[in-house]
Amino acid sequence: MKSVVVFESLWGNTAAIARAVAEGLGPEARALSTGEATMEAIEGAELLVAGSPVLAFGLPTEKVREGIRTSPGRAPAPPDLSNPS
Question: Mind listing the domains of the chain with CATH numbers?
Answer without folding.
Answer: 3-70 (3.40.50.360)
